[in-house]
Design a protein that fits this description.
Elements (H helix, E strand, L loop, with lengths): L1 H4 L3 E2 L17 H7 L5 E8 L5 H9 L9 E7 H11 L4 E8 H11 L4
Parallel strand pairs: 1-3
Antiparallel strand pairs: 2-3, 2-4
Length: about 120
Amino acid sequence: MQAATDADFGFYDVGSAVGVLRPGPIRTGDLYTAESWENTVRTVAIRGADVTGEFAADLAARNLTLDPERTYRVANIEFIANEILDEVIGPGEIVAEHGYLREMSISYVRSSGVV
């Protein structure tokens, strides 16, 4: 998501993926199965001082700190952006809408030479 949207961060709770990728070669069908919710991606703008929830915990676990005055762009799925943004990322504003996450994933994996 981050690469496809040119966001500062991408946030996706891997526990919300429907399927899992098995060891070995990855096929596009595997990615469709793993992300079969048909989620689209939204980019949210949020000030560093306003970041909370699971996203803040994820950043802390990776020893990343944010400038409280800077506005960051965080790519995430539409459910987070539209339904539970405040509790997962913090009070932000949707600034862009993008295509399907699974299409982005397929494109990213293809560009890496894996598929």
